[in-house]
Each structure stands twice: as C-alpha cells, then as structure tokens.
Design a protein that fits this description.
CATH class of one domain: Alpha Beta
CATH topology of one domain: Rossmann fold
Largest sheet: 7 strands, mixed
Low-confidence stretches: 1-68, 75-80
CATH architecture of one domain: 3-Layer(aba) Sandwich
Structural class: alpha/beta
Strand order of the largest sheet: 10-9-8-11-12-13-16
Radius of gyration: 27 Å
Amino acid sequence: MISFTRPYFLRKALGLFLLGQRGGGILKIRVVMESTLKEISSNGDSVLDMKDKCGVAGGVEDMYGEDRATEDQPITPWTFSVASGYSLLRDPHYNKGLAFTEEERDAHYLRGLLPPTVLSQELQEKRLIHNLRQYQVPLQRYMAMMDLQERNERLFYKLLIDHVEELLPIVYTPTVGEACQKYGSIFRRPQGLFISLKEKGKILEVLKNWPEKSIQVIVVTDGERILGLGDLGCQGMGIPVGKLSLYTALGGVRPSVCLPITIDVGTNNQQLLDNEFYIGLKQKRATGQEYAELLEEFMSAVKQNYGEKVLIQFEDFANHNAFNLLAKYRTTHLVFNDDIQGTASVVLAGLIASLKLLGGTLADHTFLFLGAGEAGTGIAELIALEITKRTSVPLEEARKKIWLVDSKGLVVSSRLESLQHFKKPWAHDHEPVKELIDAVKAIKPTVLIGTSGVGKTFTKEVVETMASLNPKPLIMALSNPTSQAECTAEEAYTWSKGHAIFASGSPFDPFEYEGRTFVSGQANNAYIFPGFGLGIIMSGTIRVHDDMLLAASEALAAQVTEEDYLKGRIYPSFTNIRKISAHIAAEVAAKAYELGLATRLPRPTDLEKYAESCMYTPVYRTYR
C-alpha cells in the first residue's frame, strides 16, 4: 500500500503504481488529504508537474523540517509504504510469512527478506499450535495469539477456526478477563478506536481516522462491568477485540468490516486511577447528562459515517446504562446488547434443548434466578416470551413462572417501590425471603440459574436441596470468568450424586462420577452472536426484533445431537460452530424477512447455503 499525507508525492506514487503494475505487484495508492484534491496549486503549477528535490538526508525535499528539527520541535508526520518487499511482510492483511511462493518472492521483492524455505499454511499452523501448547500460563497464550493477529491475520483465524475448542477460552472468556485486568501492562499497539471525553464534539472525525471505511459491525463498551470483574475502564478494550475475533472466526464476518470501540468516560476503580501504567482517563466516571450527551454524539456519528445498517453491539455496560441505551436506541438504530439479549438467547436455547432430558414444556417448569441484573432479567424476559409464543398465555402470566433473587433477597411485590425499573415485572406476591437456600425451599424450582457474578453461591446445601426436589435438576452457573462461577461442574455433579444437568458460562473439563463421564455444556454467547450478526448483515436487516432472538435460540437448540444428550450436554460441540452459525444466520434472516425488516432483495432461495457462501475463509490468497 502507498499512502501519502500530501499531494506533493502524488506523481511519485503514480510512477510507482505503474511500475508495480508492469511488474505484477500488488500496489495500492491512497492519498490522504484534508480537502478535495485540486488540479492546479496556488502558484499555477499542476500538482502532477511538481518536481522532487533532494533533501538534507537524500530523497525528497525536507519540506516539513524533520531532519533540521531538534527533538523538542514539532514536525509533520507522514508515511510512505508500498505493499511489496519489507512493508508487505509487515502488513497483517497480506503477510503470509514463509508461505510466499518462489514466484511471489520474485514478483514482490521478497528475495533475501525471508529464509529460503517455503512452508504451507497448514505447516505454519501446525508449528504455531505446538508452540502455543508450550506456554503454561493462559495469559501468555493470549498474548501470543494477539501478536499473531497483528502479524498474520489469515493465519490467526485459520488457527482459531481449526482449534476452536482449545483456543476459544484463550481469546475469550475466561482468559480475556485477566487480559483486561492487565491490559495496561501488556498493551503494545491499538487494536480499535478509543473515544474519550477529550473527543467530545469531534467523534465523527475520530471515526474517520479508522482506516477501513465499510464497517458493518461495531462492538462497543464503556468498561464499567467487564465480565464479573467490575469497572476496568479503558482496559475493557480486550472485550470488543475478542468478540469481533469471534464474529470472524465463528460467524465468518470479514475482519475488515469489524470495528472494536471503547468509550472512556473515566473509572471508579481506585486501583486503576493509582496505577501509573493505566492507559485511560485518570478521573472518576462521568455520569448523567455529560455521559448521555457523549453517547448520543457517538450513536449519531456512527449512523452518519457508516449508514443505517451498521450493527452496534453494546458490551459490558453497567445495568443502569445497558437498559437505558437499549431502550433509547433500539427503534432508531440497529443495536443489540449481548449481555441482555445474547445471553438470554443462548440460555433459552439450552433450556429448550434440556426439555428432552427434563420432560414437559417450558411452561411446566419453575425458574429461579440468583442475580437480577441485565443478564438475569434479559434471560427471564426471553423465557417468558417463548412461553407466551408456545402457549398463547399473556406475558404477565408467563412471568409468574420465573422468580428472581437479588442482593436483598427474593424479588417480591412488597419491595416494589424500592426496586429498579427492570426488576419490577418480576416482583410477585410472596412473603419476603432473604437467603437463596430459603428461596429454593419456598419456590421449589426445577431450574436454578446463576447470573450474580459472585462465585461459590450455589453451595452444597443449595445443590442438594435442588436434587431432593427434582429427579433431574437443571443448574446453570453462568457467571464469568471461571473464578466467579456460582459452582463448578464437579460440585454440581458430586453434590447432586450425578443427577444434575449442568451448564456454565465458562468451560469446565469433563468430570467422571461413579464410572460415568459428564461433559457439561457451556452457555457461551459465542454460540449466538456471530451467527446472529451474520444473519443481520446478509439480509440487510435494519432493526433487531425479539422474535429474531427466539429464532436464534430455537435454531441453536435444534443442533444438539443424541451424542450430546448421552454425555449430559445441552449445547452442541464447538467443533461444528461455523455450520451452526450458518444455520442460526439463516433462521435469523428468515425471521427478518418475515417481519419486513430485511432490505436485501430478492430474498435468497436457500438462506443457509447463502450464509455459507457469505462466510470469510482465512486461507492464503495467491498474489499476482
């Protein structure tokens, strides 16, 4: 790639471009200017006729005084790079490492810049997975994967796709949580856009600084509630980066159309504020009108810059902001909150699949949640919507099958005045209950779901009580990362004497109990959002509707096999995740067309085949 910040260099760029075309090289020219290129300069010379002059250090004239400037004098930065030779090896989009063929090495000036051997992508992949397995610390593997992504994009995604079950816990939860905690220390180069209060009034300009212009998916966070780890401020960037890696690896969305963004409004984490290596704004979080105005400017700028059909995924916002933002923008923008809607969809899929083991319908079961935040209430609402869809009972009636426990105990009608607005639909008539174990005994649930973000809260007494009430209790410990899980797979199976059906948010190893090996399911949002996003993109959908989430849940549940059920697992293996994502994308797109929200016409005849054809494949390309 050739890039110039001044029209002065255009003639030389064009000459190199023509030379590259004659030599079969990949040469792209991009001229970056503050205003439209004018044919004639102010002194009457044509731009194309301007002469290069020798500068102090050779080459072109030292127009901006870089060579003459002292270290404390400002200079004008400019870049000159060609997607050939040394710079080609430094471009992650095109770099193939030792896989460049003999012909490509000649055509693109790579002779001498690489060792003489030629290694296929498959052999490179084999070497890399071997090297990764030598690391004993998961964070070291995470850093190695991020280095690979910045060095060789296609090899990164090929490795991730082919070893998804092994590497998913590295690039995503639980390891990404530790990476966010230490992001300031391991930060090497930016992987997305950082928009802070300093950029208020010029967010549109900031968006235009991103090199890719055709963005289709944005994952944005303000870092206030990262997994179960709390306020990590600007260091929450690891989450959007990780999520978008999965959009590409699992959902086949091209990496060039993905944009991770962190909105930095400060942090209330005093440890970060006191840390000299913290990379964000060192101030307390902005709230109220100041916060709302920044987000309003951001949302308007995104639509203005990228259009109506860019999907904006809200990620790890605190409860109060998460609900407010979703409610405010869901009718004006294409928005999706993964913590509320994505988590709800994947959990509902597990519940639908579990009915084959539990028996009955969703309406026959009673659900008790520990945790009444965005994840808990989002799951509860989608369960109620599915019950309403299946039985035609009113939504208010369906909600009565679902109970929530928060930090103050069971959510009941006597607490109505003091409850946050998103908890009020779940305040049923019942006497106050303070402790979870007492709520389990009083409500007698068949399904226990943990979204509290507090580890070890499903105690032995809680699990044993669930087992005494149900022949097959369904226990879902969904909080991330692993340290925050309400209980482990081993605890659930042991305390229930092997009767529990268990699923979790973070992965657990298979566990053997009395001669039987249990493989717990992982209620991982990565089952849903990549395929969901692909379905939206390929259909040109302009708004997210709850029925599309229900369609995604039902599509995922249908992928659970008999082999999965025999192992006690209510989610399919990640091995076939791209096929699963294509199926989910097709069902989501079909629902969007049915609702009149899809704009890409005519509708493809076979949506699943169309989804597969749209998916990015990270094999190396041959260069002319």
